[in-house]
């Protein structure tokens, strides 16, 4: 039911810092009818145009903070809420090529009252937007 909403059509763009494209970001919605603590996310797997991306290059951001992928299993006080667009940043020198890309995301959640994981897949073809330019401190540069 929530699969078609996982991959957001907005916010898919390269990220530029100090004049260099350091990676790209993608907005995601939770494929569940409630919010959950980040520690309950078993995995987020990303594939773009048939290429998989390693977890060690991911940073996951919700309204209350940003966390490297490998730390998420310990994040019990920050939540991904229903309707919230979380940002998944991928470190990739040079980013992605302009144009449309086929984005596939598989999210595996651990739900306390279910004896099995909840695994949902979202796939969409979306257009890469104009790059997000960061200043030297990591904040968004004002043009």
From TrEMBL:
Pfam families hit by this protein: CGDB (PF19906)
Q: Which domain of life is it from?
A: Bacteria
- What sequence ranges are listed for the domain C-glycoside deglycosidase beta subunit? 2-113
InterPro entries tied to this protein? CGDB
Instruction: Give the UniProt keywords, A-Z.
Output: Carbohydrate metabolism, Lyase
Q: Which Gene Ontology terms cover its molecular function?
A: lyase activity
Family from the record: Belongs to the C-glycoside deglycosidase beta subunit family.
Q: What is this protein called?
A: C-deglycosylation enzyme beta subunit
Per the UniProt record, the source organism is Halalkalibacter alkaliphilus
What is the taxonomic lineage of the source species?
Bacteria, Bacillati, Bacillota, Bacilli, Bacillales
């Amino acid at each position: 039911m929530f699969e078609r909403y996982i991959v957001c059509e907005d916010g898919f763009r390269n990220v530029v810092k100090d004049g260099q494209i350091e990676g790209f970001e993608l907005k995601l919605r939770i494929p569940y009818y409630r919010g959950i603590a980040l520690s309950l996310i078993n995995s987020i797997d990303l594939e773009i145009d048939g290429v998989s991306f390693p977890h060690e290059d991911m940073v996951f951001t919700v309204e209350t903070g940003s966390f490297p992928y490998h730390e998420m299993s310990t994040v019990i006080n920050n939540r991904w809420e229903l309707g919230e667009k979380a940002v998944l940043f991928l470190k990739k020198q040079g980013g992605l090529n302009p144009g449309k890309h086929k984005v596939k995301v598989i999210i595996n959640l651990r739900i306390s009252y279910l004896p099995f994981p909840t695994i949902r897949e979202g796939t969409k073809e979306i257009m890469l937007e104009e790059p997000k330019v960061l200043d030297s401190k990591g904040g968004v540069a004002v043009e």
